Amino acid sequence: MRIDIVSIFPSYFDGLTLSLLGKAQSSGILDLHVHDLRDWTFDRHRTVDDTPYGGGAGMVMKPEPWGLALDELSTSTPESRPTIIFPSPAGEVFSQATARDLATREHLLFGCGRYEGIDERVFDYAASLGEVRLISLGDYVLNGGEVAVMAMVEAIGRLIPGVVGNPESLVEESHEDGLLEYPSYTKPAVWREREVPPVLRSGDHGRVAAWRHEQQLERTRRRRPDLLAD
Ligand code: 6GU
After folding, report:
1. Predicted confidence (pLDDT) per residue in 119-156, tens digit
2. Given the CA of residue 137, which atom of ligand 1 is nearest to it?
3. What is the pTM of this model?
4. How many CB atoms lie within 10 A of CB 191?
């Protein structure tokens, strides 16, 4: 998979060279490119924003640098059109299902907005180059799309075959089966007067599986009843 990220703060993404996604890049499974939007500006101050038509607080990202960035990066995979993702608190809410869908794509292009947002015409133009998705992390406001894209790239990247060493570890996690995951314990069996549930030390795999499933249901009922309603 190829991933392009466009941002005015490219160093936010330095962390993506670490750990599993770093390894996926060295092994060639993931082809990640981070770009500075200002590389598509030509004035002395490398301007990416301007005042809003109609007035109001804050600045709006100018369309011209975005147009040039999208033109250049959308043709980096000549055999397929990119899926173009704009992180936005006004978008559809990101979920494990979204991550699974996006993990099947050949080319993802993320455009990180700042200030009050990007000139609306950019989204319409982007739709002429690929499928456009506006995606939110949840119902709260961040200063820009960078942190949201970090989260999305990590959630998507770990679903690409070969990125997570043991694929079995993917299926038993929270949200994969619509439930929260069961609690985990390791040695010692007693720690600060707290005991590991004896069933986990019984060696009875059937009883362990039944207990874990009951724990999943119980936790989900208590912490996330909305998931059971679905
Ligand atoms: Cl994707 N962007 C911004 N700026 N704020 C958010 C968000 C995204 N998701 C939740 N809050």
Report:
1. 999 999 999 999 999 999 999 999 999 999 999 999 99
2. 9
3. 0.94
4. 11
